[in-house]
Amino acid sequence: MTTTLDTAIHASDRLKIYKAAPELLDAMMNLSAASAKDVEPELGELIKIRASQINRCGFCLNMHLVDARKHGVSEQKLDVLAAWEEAGDIFTERERAALALTEAITHVSHGVPDDVYDRAAAVFTERELAQVIAMAVTINAWNRINVTVHQHVPRR
């Protein structure tokens, strides 16, 4: 049986991935910047937080909740983001379309249903849609890296 102490000890033994391969950090940062060019920052943070909730990435959740608040995302949206489909009109149609697409991309083994894709395509330009897709893919990559290496949430 693994204890919390065992997990903490083993977590400190995990690879410091960006120290071992700094070019990976550069590539991820470039992909993050490219995917964010035409996506409004508030929407981008909602995408990143929702994927990070699903993937249980505490490091990314912490970072993007702080960033979302800096960009003016309301506390109410942040409070109900995990249940956005049940939140009524708190989220705009663009936000709902992006969140649905983000969830489908995050759970990609189920595929991305046509209705989810079509909903997003109806409210975003082709360039915006490309960047929303890339942003969801990118945060999923960050989440998977950080969860794998047990990237710790810094204390504030």
Structure overview:
Pfam families: CMD. It comes from Mycolicibacterium agri. The protein has helices at residues 4-12, 17-20, 22-35, 41-55, 58-70, 75-80, 93-106, 114-123, 126-148. It is mainly alpha-helical and 156 residues long. It has one domain: AhpD-like. The protein is globular. Residues 1-10 have low confidence and may be disordered.
Number of helices: 9
- Strand percentage, roughly? under 5%
CATH class: Mainly Alpha
**So, the CATH homologous superfamily?**
AhpD-like
Number of strands: 0
Low-confidence residue ranges: 1-10
Largest sheet: none
Rough outline: globular
Q: What structural class do you assign from the helix and strand content?
A: mainly alpha
Give a quick precis of the structure:
This protein has 156 residues and is mainly alpha-helical. The chain has helices at 4-12, 17-20, 22-35, 41-55, 58-70, 75-80, 93-106, 114-123, 126-148. Helix 3 packs antiparallel against helix 9 (126-148) and helix 4 (41-55) packs parallel to helix 7 (93-106).
